[in-house]
Design a protein that fits this description.
This protein is an alpha/beta fold and about 270 residues long. It has 7 helices and 14 strands. The protein has a single domain, classed as Carbon-nitrogen hydrolase (Nitrilase/N-carbamoyl-D-aminoacid amidohydrolase), CATH 3.60.110. InterPro entries: C-N_Hydrolase (IPR003010), C-N_Hydrolase_sf (IPR036526), UPF0012_CS (IPR001110).
Length: about 270
């Protein structure tokens, strides 16, 4: 499975429209990959909370449409990072806004969405601005010349909640994708938690972070690909970078058979 993680960097001086065009061009440049991943909230700004409401859009809005076209042009499955999704509130008192990941097929069709379950902010920040998701998201990603790979979706702060990833494994996930807007101040947690999730769930973990500085927050970069044994196969620095790597997905099943930790689970 050939994967590209686009560690996009941006600041406050770039418009959403310009950044969208630039991200779409970067996606088009990844033709030949099976899966391409962008970071969390790269269009509205991961920490630009005050502008989320005005930059919110439905799942078929302008950002989504531009990335769907880029996926089709490149012929890749594209995890387009996440947007602030606008829609009808589900319950009285809800905001009708979610941090929603979008996945497009090589034909440019929207094949999966994931509304971020864990909102960062300790009762402030995201919990005051957006609604929480409630549903797991798992999909099969086609691989050139091989069998499809089952991929589980999560976003940024989710990485701190191992029970979510156990549920994704129970749903069949072999690869875990984590787009993020993780700040430099806690970048050691980002790297360590990614390895921990890979080791305990015996999955490949794809972590795609943001670079640059926006809304007075320096982003951490350091995207990484971790195999099912916890070994870091590829890692980015702090600046904009594309990580491209061929992953031996057959090795996941081999490792699970050789070291069958998951079979020894006993708690309900």
């Amino acid at each position: 499975m050939k994967v590209a993680l686009i560690q996009l960097a941006y600041g406050d001086d770039e418009s959403v429209a310009d950044r969208t065009r630039r991200a779409a061009d970067l996606v088009r440049a990844q033709s030949g990959h099976d899966l391409v991943v962008l970071p969390e909230l790269w269009a509205p700004g991961g920490f630009d909370y005050r502008r989320w409401d005005e930059r919110a859009e439905p799942v078929d809005g302008p950002v989504a449409s531009a990335l769907a076209a880029a996926a089709r042009d490149a012929g890749v499955t594209l995890h387009a990072g996440s947007i602030i999704e606008s829609g009808e509130p589900l319950e009285p008192g809800d905001k009708g806004l979610w941090n929603t990941s979008l996945v497009f097929s090589p034909a440019g069709e929207l094949v999966a969405t994931y509304r971020k379950i864990h909102r960062f902010g300790f009762g402030e920040g995201e919990p005051l601005l957006i609604d929480a998701g409630a549903d797991l998201a798992v999909l099969d990603v086609p691989v050139a010349g091989g069998a499809p790979v089952t991929v589980g979706l999560s976003t940024c702060y989710d990485l701190r909640f191992p029970e979510l990833y156990r549920r994704l494994v129970d749903a069949g996930a072999e690869v875990l994708v984590v787009p993020a807007a993780w700040p430099m101040a806690r970048i050691e947690h980002w790297s360590l938690l990614g390895r921990a999730r890979a080791i305990e769930d015996q999955c490949v973990v794809l972590q795609c972070n943001t670079a640059g500085t926006h809304a007075r927050h320096e982003m951490g970069g350091h995207s990484q690909v971790v195999d099912a044994t916890g070994k870091v196969l590829a890692a980015a620095g702090a600046d904009e970078q594309v990580l491209s790597i061929d992953i031996d997905t057959a090795a996941i099943a081999t490792w699970r058979k050789t070291f069958p930790v998951l079979a020894d689970r006993r708690l309900p």
